[in-house]
Each structure stands twice: as structure tokens, then as C-alpha cells.
């Protein structure tokens, strides 16, 4: 008996049984080779397929990838006004935010049913403090799954808070970018996150701490045109799309097809915009090596991470900000 | 009287055409008593213009901001500055004429000026690439700011671009990095910087030269994260909905003053800057002078600090 003779049309029972019984995410199709890869194998390989495709991963997985002993302290990210412009396209912006948040919660439940160790994600950003090969580091991860990782006020505030935490802790600042660009629903306020994040990088520079950018798929628009391209070192994951204008916009403008590999990590390295193209499984070692060179050895490098103190002396607490709201003459 | 009327200016156009005709007739000395008629018509036209322009919708403002006869950076250079010495080139690849700049005298003081130039006719528009810069344009801005920093000269920038050019060559030469560096250079300047949005402030291509101590906007200019058409085609999947997108994105000077994205708005002559460029530019000059004088006493450290505080404060106060 082979699978052909074994095959039968699905009966009512199979038809009615929901996806929960046969999770459709048991197998993942490799975007590069088209082959089906078993999900637990992907777990082992940090979601790099046998053909080398680097699939998008959550902030939680990024933290596990980077931090020693998979231990970290989450940074509580500052809240921001929701929907300041009362923006609506075919849906109101708050309902888009809500949908993105519930998607996030579902993923969290799947990846860590007991939510430990905790992560604290606000909008498309999550940040945590920990050690990478012994060196203190703040890792900020941008989550493409949350509204395309678009840069709005929440992401901007998260970036500033994470950078200031790095300064307060004398830690390296590692940012994993993934974004389609600016959050259009926040209009010019989203554009303002370009200078705002740039100022935060300036604080890290003034403190003499390394700022390392890990460009992941995709990084474009206002994100690539601000903090993604201002690193002391630029590392890119293989095959990541990294651009200012996306290929579709350019093809519309110049009315010709772009060559294969245009705006991919390897291309950007060839053009001098990226220093290192690193396989995800080597990423921690690569960053660790850079930090060993860029950060002087300190006695505390060996001590385990302590409790998180208030990192943002400069930034008024949200309550204080609320009080000052209203019209100014 | 402008030679180009926008679609919503049709009633104004009709009145003004009639006035022009009547004036031509009266100058020929025929018909004795049309002066009363003429005055009535002129009053009517003025009222029509005022009614239209006192409540421009965001989309109409977008059209005014892009008006072909709107004063451009080169007009500002000519009227506001003495002995402008253009400095060309980025020292790396080439001279991008979408961004022009150099040394000039403003109210007796040496300054560095830079800005987007869209061009006025077909030939110059092509030369200036319609004000859409390549990486070289932003790298030129960076070298001009380096110069300003070294010689302690204030920087004045004039923003008028639909955005950075989305092309193959620009991407190959690091468009994103060039914009990021230029924004960064604005923010690290130890000299005062004042920016004025004179027409379109389009996205990253605008902020690259507008991360200043004081950001001013001409009354009918726009400043946005993406063009209304671009936003419409992405979010509404229909670029014809640009009107709605313009409304939703809050791109007018009035809205952005409330959001504290800009510090001051320069009033334009009735009917827009293109109706009286000289007056519009002279008003702009006064606003720039005022902004510069407010920054005059600040030390290099204080100037950097002021810029940091200014941009960090955006979105932290005064919103819902």
C-alpha cells in the first residue's frame, strides 16, 4: 500500500476539525528553495532554512539568540499618545493597532506559553539589557510582524529609551532593524522620528559606546534613512532587502526591471554600505568579537546582570508629561 | 495676475480675465463709464480670492505648494542674500543641482545657505532634477555644514522637494546613508541653524536638511512623511484618493504648528506667494532674521542642547 492507495477524500470529521488539530504551521515553506521544512528543525537553526533563507523572527527569539545564557532584563518602554491625528483610511488607525497587538499576543503565547523570561514589547519595538559574550549590551529589536515594523512615535520613544539605557548602563547598543519605513498614520510626527532617533545615537556616541546595527529583512524607507545607516558597524543578515526606496517604486520610476540581488545585503556590502554579511547562526559570535574590540575589558564583565534601575533620568515620567499637556500660549 | 490658475481658482480666473479685458478697453479710451464697473469687479475678485484662500483644504494647499509660479529657492537667494557664492559638489562623486548652496551675506552677516531647487522651465527642471536629490545632494549639504561649523557661520536651509529621488543610481550610491548623515550633521552643528519650508517638504529628502534649531513654514507650504499620492496608493490602494490622504496626514502649516513640528508660520500674500513673490520672500526674510536673533546668544553646547530638546519634545506634549 502506498500513499496513493491510502489516499481518501476528506470526510466530514476532517473537514470540520479546525486547524488546531493539524497546525498549518508544522511545516514551513522555504522562500528560497520552495522545500518544506519541519518547524522544529527551524527552531534548532534559528529559523535559517537548509537552503540558507533567513526567515523573520520575533524579538523574543532575537534576545535568546544574542544574550548569554538566554537571560535578559526587559526594558519597560514609554507609552505614547495613540492616534494623535485621528487618522483613518479604510479602517481607523486604533483598530489597526488593536489587530496588530492581538496578533502579537497570539505569537507570544505560542512561543512562550508561560511568558518567561518576560519581554516587554511596545508597538513594533522590544528592548532588553543583558550580556553578549560577557559585554553589557542593550538589544533593541524591531518587529516586522507589527504593522510592518513601521516607525512611529512609539518606536521612536522606544529607540530613545533603549539608547539612554545603554548610556546609563555603559552598555553597547545593538539594534536589529526590520521596517517598511515610516508609519503613515502618524503623518509628519512619524517623520520626526528620524531626527529624534538620530539624536539618541548621538548620546550613545558621546558616551563612547558602540552602536551596532543588524540589518534584517526588510529595512527600508525612513528607517534605513536614519538609524539603520548610522552604525559604527553595519551587519546584515544574508539576503535581506535593504533600501531607501523599495524596488517597486524604483521600477515604476525608471520603468525597467531591477537586476536580481539589487538592494540585497550582499549587494550593499559590495557597494560599501554594509560591513559584514553574517549568517544568523554566527551573529552572536560576530557581535561578540566586535564588542571585544570596541569595549575595554572591565572587571564587571563577568558579573551577572542585576536588577533594572530607572534608566531614563532625562525623560519625564508619563504622568509628568500628561500634566503638562494642553495648550501652551 | 498669475499665468497658471489651479482648478479651484476657476471663478477667480474668470473674474480676473474679465478685469484684464475691461482694463484693456478702458486704456484705449473707449466707453466712458466703466471705471465703476471695473471697481466692482475688482472688489468681487478680491473677495473671491480671500474667501478661497482663507479656508484652503489640505489638498488645495498641496496644489498651491506645488504651483509652478511659486517662488523657488533661487528667488529667495536673489532677494534675501547679497554676494552669493555658490559652492558646487560633494567632493566624492559629483555636483547634484537638486540641492544648491554656498556662502552668502544675510543682513550684513556671513552665512551658509542651502536648499532644494526645482527649476523653472523644462531645461532647468531637468538640470535640477525637479528638486529631487541624489546622495550627492545630501553629501553636498554635509560638506557645506562642515564648512559652516568650522568657520562659525549660521546655516539657513530652504526646503522644497517632493522627496529624495527614488532611482537605481541613487540606491547604489547609498541614498539612505546620505540622508541619514545629512540629518545627523544638522543635529550636531555647533552653529545656529534655521530651516524654512518654502513649498513641499517631502519626507526624508526634506528632513535631511531641516533638522534645525528653528523650523519655519510658509503659510501655504506642506510638510509630510510621504506625498498625499503615495500615501493614498499605499493605504487606500488608490492614488486618486490623494485628497483624503492630504486631509488625514495633517500636512499644513497650521496643523504642524499645533503639533509643534514647526515653530513659526510665515504669512503669505493673499492668494499665495506666487501672486506677490517679492512680498512673500520679504516676510520670510523677517521671520528668518527673528529666528536667528533668538538663537544669537546661545553657546555651541546650548545650540546642540536646544536642538535635542526641541526634537525630543515633539509628541511628548500637547497631544491627546
TrEMBL record, chain A:
Pathway: Lipid metabolism; malonyl-CoA biosynthesis; malonyl-CoA from acetyl-CoA: step 1/1
Keywords assigned by UniProt, alphabetized: ATP-binding, Cytoplasm, Fatty acid biosynthesis, Fatty acid metabolism, Lipid biosynthesis, Lipid metabolism, Nucleotide-binding, Transferase
Quaternary structure annotation from Swiss-Prot or TrEMBL: Acetyl-CoA carboxylase is a heterohexamer composed of biotin carboxyl carrier protein (AccB), biotin carboxylase (AccC) and two subunits each of ACCase subunit alpha (AccA) and ACCase subunit beta (AccD).
EC number(s) recorded for this UniProt protein: 2.1.3.15
Chain's gene name: accD
Statement: the UniProt record of this protein carries the keyword Ribosomal protein: no
Protein name stated in the entry: Acetyl-coenzyme A carboxylase carboxyl transferase subunit beta
UniProt source species: Henriciella marina
Protein family according to the UniProt entry: Belongs to the AccD/PCCB family.
Highest taxon of source: Bacteria
Localization per Swiss-Prot or TrEMBL: Cytoplasm
Record field: catalytic activity: N(6)-carboxybiotinyl-L-lysyl-[protein] + acetyl-CoA = N(6)-biotinyl-L-lysyl-[protein] + malonyl-CoA
PROSITE patterns: COA_CT_NTER (PS50980)
PANTHER family: ACETYL-COENZYME A CARBOXYLASE CARBOXYL TRANSFERASE SUBUNIT BETA, CHLOROPLASTIC
Protein purpose: Component of the acetyl coenzyme A carboxylase (ACC) complex. Biotin carboxylase (BC) catalyzes the carboxylation of biotin on its carrier protein (BCCP) and then the CO(2) group is transferred by the transcarboxylase to acetyl-CoA to form malonyl-CoA.
Location of the CoA carboxyltransferase N-terminal domain: 26-309
Any Pfam family hit: Carboxyl_trans
Region listing for Disordered, in residue ranges: 98-119, 304-329
UniProtKB/TrEMBL annotation, chain B:
The entry's keywords: ATP-binding, Cytoplasm, Fatty acid biosynthesis, Fatty acid metabolism, Ligase, Lipid biosynthesis, Lipid metabolism, Nucleotide-binding, Transferase
Cellular location(s): Cytoplasm
Domain CoA carboxyltransferase C-terminal: 41-294
Enzyme class at the top of the EC tree: transferase
Example of a GO MF term: acetyl-CoA carboxylase activity
Domain of life: Bacteria
Gene3D superfamilies: 2-enoyl-CoA Hydratase, Chain A, domain 1
InterPro entries in UniProt: Acetyl_CoA_COase_a_su, ClpP/crotonase-like_dom_sf, COA_CT_C
Pathway annotation from the record: Lipid metabolism; malonyl-CoA biosynthesis; malonyl-CoA from acetyl-CoA: step 1/1
EC number(s) from the headed UniProt entry: 2.1.3.15
Catalytic activity: N(6)-carboxybiotinyl-L-lysyl-[protein] + acetyl-CoA = N(6)-biotinyl-L-lysyl-[protein] + malonyl-CoA
Main location: cytoplasm
Function: Component of the acetyl coenzyme A carboxylase (ACC) complex. First, biotin carboxylase catalyzes the carboxylation of biotin on its carrier protein (BCCP) and then the CO(2) group is transferred by the carboxyltransferase to acetyl-CoA to form malonyl-CoA.
Similarity field: Belongs to the AccA family.
Subunit composition and interactions: Acetyl-CoA carboxylase is a heterohexamer composed of biotin carboxyl carrier protein (AccB), biotin carboxylase (AccC) and two subunits each of ACCase subunit alpha (AccA) and ACCase subunit beta (AccD).
HAMAP family for the chain: AcetylCoA_CT_alpha
Record-given protein name: Acetyl-coenzyme A carboxylase carboxyl transferase subunit alpha
Organism from which the protein derives: Henriciella marina
Amino acid at each position: 500500500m502506498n500513499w496513493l492507495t491510502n489516499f481518501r477524500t476528506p470526510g466530514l470529521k476532517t473537514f470540520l476539525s479546525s486547524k488546531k488539530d493539524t497546525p498549518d504551521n508544522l511545516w514551513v515553506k522555504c522562500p528560497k528553495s520552495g522545500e518544506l521544512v519541519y518547524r522544529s528543525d527551524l527552531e534548532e537553526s534559528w529559523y535559517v532554512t537548509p537552503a540558507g533563507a533567513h526567515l523573520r523572527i520575533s524579538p523574543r527569539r532575537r534576545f535568546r539568540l544574542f544574550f548569554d545564557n538566554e537571560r535578559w532584563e526587559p526594558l519597560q518602554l514609554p507609552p505614547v499618545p495613540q492616534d494623535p491625528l485621528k487618522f483613518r483610511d479604510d479602517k481607523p488607525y486604533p483598530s489597526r493597532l488593536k489587530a496588530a497587538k492581538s496578533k502579537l499576543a497570539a505569537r507570544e503565547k505560542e512561543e512562550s506559553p508561560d511568558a518567561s523570561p518576560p519581554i516587554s514589547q511596545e508597538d513594533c519595538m522590544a528592548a532588553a539589557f543583558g550580556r553578549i559574550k560577557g559585554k553589557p549590551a542593550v538589544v533593541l529589536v524591531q518587529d516586522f510582524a507589527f504593522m510592518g515594523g513601521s516607525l512611529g512615535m512609539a518606536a521612536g520613544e522606544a529607540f530613545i529609551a533603549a539608547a539612554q539605557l545603554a548610556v546609563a548602563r555603559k552598555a553597547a547598543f545593538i539594534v536589529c532593524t526590520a521596517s517598511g519605513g515610516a508609519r503613515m498614520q502618524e503623518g509628519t510626527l512619524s517623520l520626526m522620528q528620524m531626527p529624534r532617533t538620530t539624536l539618541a545615537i548621538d548620546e550613545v556616541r558621546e558616551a563612547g559606546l558602540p552602536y551596532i546595527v543588524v540589518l534584517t529583512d526588510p529595512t527600508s524607507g525612513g528607517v534605513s534613512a536614519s538609524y539603520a545607516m548610522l552604525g559604527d558597524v553595519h551587519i546584515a543578515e544574508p539576503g535581506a532587502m535593504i533600501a531607501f526606496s523599495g524596488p517597486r517604486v524604483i521600477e515604476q520610476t525608471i520603468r525597467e526591471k531591477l537586476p536580481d540581488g539589487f538592494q540585497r545585503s550582499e549587494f550593499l556590502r559590495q557597494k560599501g554600505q554594509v560591513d559584514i554579511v553574517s549568517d544568523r547562526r554566527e551573529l552572536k559570535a560576530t557581535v561578540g568579537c566586535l564588542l571585544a574590540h570596541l569595549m575595554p575589558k572591565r572587571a564587571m564583565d563577568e558579573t551577572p546582570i542585576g536588577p533594572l534601575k530607572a534608566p531614563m533620568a532625562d525623560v519625564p515620567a508619563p504622568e509628568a508629561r500628561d500634566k503638562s499637556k494642553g495648550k501652551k500660549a | 495676475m498669475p499665468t497658471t490658475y489651479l482648478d479651484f481658482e476657476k471663478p477667480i480666473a474668470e473674474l480676473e480675465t474679465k478685469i484684464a479685458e475691461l482694463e484693456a478697453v478702458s486704456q484705449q479710451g473707449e466707453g466712458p463709464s466703466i471705471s465703476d464697473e471695473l471697481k466692482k469687479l475688482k472688489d468681487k475678485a478680491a473677495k473671491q480670492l480671500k474667501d478661497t484662500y482663507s479656508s484652503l483644504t489640505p489638498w488645495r494647499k498641496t496644489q498651491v505648494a506645488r504651483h509652478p509660479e511659486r517662488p523657488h529657492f533661487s528667488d529667495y537667494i536673489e532677494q534675501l542674500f547679497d554676494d552669493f557664492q555658490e559652492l558646487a559638489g560633494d567632493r566624492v562623486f559629483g555636483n547634484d543641482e537638486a540641492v544648491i548652496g554656498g556662502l552668502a551675506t544675510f543682513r550684513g552677516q556671513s552665512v551658509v545657505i542651502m536648499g532644494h531647487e526645482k527649476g523653472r522651465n523644462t531645461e532647468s527642471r531637468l538640470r535640477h532634477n525637479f528638486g529631487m536629490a541624489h546622495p550627492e545632494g545630501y553629501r553636498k549639504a554635509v560638506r557645506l555644514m562642515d564648512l559652516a561649523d568650522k568657520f562659525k557661520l549660521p546655516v539657513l536651509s530652504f526646503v522644497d522637494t517632493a522627496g529624495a529621488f527614488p532611482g537605481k543610481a541613487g540606491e547604489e550610491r547609498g541614498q539612505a546613508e546620505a540622508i541619514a548623515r545629512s540629518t545627523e550633521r544638522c543635529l550636531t552643528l555647533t552653529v545656529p541653524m534655521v530651516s524654512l519650508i518654502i513649498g513641499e517638504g517631502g519626507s526624508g529628502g526634506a528632513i535631511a536638511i531641516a533638522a534645525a534649531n528653528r523650523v519655519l513654514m510658509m503659510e501655504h507650504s506642506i510638510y509630510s512623511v510621504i506625498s498625499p499620492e503615495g500615501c493614498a496608493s499605499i493605504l487606500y490602494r488608490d492614488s486618486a484618493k490623494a485628497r483624503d490622504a492630504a486631509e488625514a496626514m495633517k500636512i499644513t502649516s497650521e496643523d504642524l504648528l499645533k503639533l509643534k513640528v514647526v515653530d513659526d508660520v510665515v504669512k503669505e500674500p493673499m492668494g499665495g506667494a506666487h501672486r506677490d513673490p517679492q512680498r512673500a520672500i520679504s516676510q520670510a526674510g523677517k521671520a528668518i532674521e527673528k529666528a536667528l536673533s533668538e538663537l544669537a546668544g546661545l553657546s555651541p553646547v546650548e545650540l546642540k542642547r536646544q536642538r535635542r530638546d526641541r526634537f525630543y519634545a515633539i509628541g511628548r506634549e500637547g497631544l491627546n
